[in-house]
Amino acid sequence: MLNRMLSHDLPRSRALAIALVLVLALLAVEPFLFPGAKALNVAAKMLVFVLLVASYDLLLGYTGIVSFAHTMFFGIGAYGVAIGCTRWAGDEGVGWGGVAAGVSVALALSLALSLLIGLFSLRVKAIFFAMITLAVAAAFQTLASQLSELTGGEDGLSFKTPLWLSPSFEPFEEPVFGLMIDGKVIAYYVLFFSVVLGFLALLRIVNSPFGRVLQAIRENDFRAEAIGYRTVVYRSLSNVLAALFATLAGALLALWLRYTGPETTLGFEVMLDVLLIVVIGGMGTLYGAVIGTVLFVFAQNYLQDLLKHLGGEAGLLAGVPVLSSLVSPERWLFWLGLGFVLCVYFFPSGVVGRLRARGTNP
Questions:
Q1: CB under 8 Å to 218, separation ≥6 — which residues?
Q2: What is the CA radius of gyration of the chain?
Q3: At residue 318, does pLDDT exceed 90?
Q4: Buried (b) or exposed (e) across 326-361, using 16+ Cβ within 10 A?
Q5: With 0-12 CB in 10 A as exposed, 13-18 as middle and 19+ as buried, what is 300?
Q6: Which of 213, 286, 263 is nearest to 55 (CA)?
Q7: What is the pLDDT of residues 103-144, one digit of tens each?
Q8: Which residues are registered as beta bridge partners of 176?
Q9: Do residues 259 and 156 lie in contact, with contact meaning Cβ atoms separated by under 8 Å?
Q10: SS (H, E, C) the chain
Q11: Closest Cα partner for 52 from 284, 206, 274?
């Protein structure tokens, strides 16, 4: 049963299997174990980025396409939900109809744009395609910043979500297992189950005959074309599927934050984070999206807190001449960058690639 759910793509490493089960279990019960606002926000960001990075891995890791427009589709999903909840709210407030309408329009727009980009750009060489997608993404970010009447401009859009997802909504009068269930907890589990289903769908895609052709194109597109596969068609379809899943990830982020803006989803920093996570986790594995996201987002949010305990005014190394300066909380970006360099050096095929290699050759 588990083998079918994972589309016959098992971890193939005991350490990786344990890590994946542990991540899944912790994310499933996170609101009950760590009910604080920061911990819940970090876990929600992990869920969203798992789906976003996995969808990008379909492009980069499985098809060999380098695209810088992925966050554009991420932003389209977020803006779709924001505009839907803002413009199509009924007399009784925001309903699920507004969310559904916003997501539907966003998916349709992403479908059209990704198809156009695929058909007109994927015939060129890889570097030129990457530059084209970068230009399109930059143009879309500028457009979103200038259409203030529709998108809120640089300030973005804050909006209300359906009642069940509102933090003030409390369906139970008593706590459940010590946790008071409210709309924020419900929204978290909407994210959790949506991401699990989306990830399983991506696993099914990459392990289908279609996915095998994508991998053949990645390895040698001329050979794939020679044996009868229309590589442009397959690359275009891969581009479309990756865009649609990224759009869904953006919609989930908007539902969680109840806000979207140019820097939240369309900024180049988001695209850079996605690239770093893919490299850390391992390209062409999908499981790398899970491991890489957890490691990166956790370090991004808690590394500075850890350094405060070490090099802060009341830290363990406070007063030590050189060490206290090195582990100062202000230097957390230095340590994050150093960690990335060490990860690439010791895990050139990513964490998942290294674990699978060890599992195959103990």
A1: 62, 63, 64, 284
A2: 21
A3: no
A4: ebbbebbeebeeeebeebeeebebbbbbbbbeeeee
A5: middle
A6: 286
A7: 999 999 999 999 988 877 666 667 788 888 888 899 999 998
A8: 179
A9: yes
A10: CHHHHCCCCCCCCHHHHHHHHHHHHHHHHHHHHCCCHHHHHHHHHHHHHHHHHHHHHHHHCCCCCCCCCHHHHHHHHHHHHHHHHHHCCECCECCHHHHHHHHHHHHHHHHHHHHHHHHHHCCCCHHHHHHHHHHHHHHHHHHHHHCHHHHCHHHCEECCCCHHHCCCCCCCCCCECCECCCHHHHHHHHHHHHHHHHHHHHHHHHCCHHHHHHHHHHHCHHHHHHCCCCHHHHHHHHHHHHHHHHHHHHHHHHHHHCEECHHHHHCHHHHHHHHHHHHHHCCCCCHHHHHHHHHHHHHHHHHHHHHHHHHCCCCCCCCCCCHHHHCCHHHHHHHHHHHHHHHHHHCCCHHHHHHHHHHHCC
A11: 274
CATH of 2-360, one of 1.10.3470, 3.30.200, 1.10.8, 2.60.40: 1.10.3470
Judge whether residue 49 has pLDDT over 60: yes
- Residue whose token pair is 């350490």: 15
Which amino acid is present at 73?
Answer: F
Q: Which phi-psi region, left, alpha or beta, contains residue 229 (left: φ > 0; alpha: ψ -120 to 50)?
A: beta
Contact 49, 75 (CB under 8 A): no
52-76 mean pLDDT: 93
Mean pLDDT of the chain: 87
Domain boundaries, the chain: 2-360
Please report the sign of the dihedral spanned by the C-alpha atoms of residue 233, residue 234, residue 236, residue 237: positive
CA 293 to centroid of chain Cα atoms:
8
Measured between alpha carbons, how far is 68 from 136 in angstroms, rounded to an integer?
9
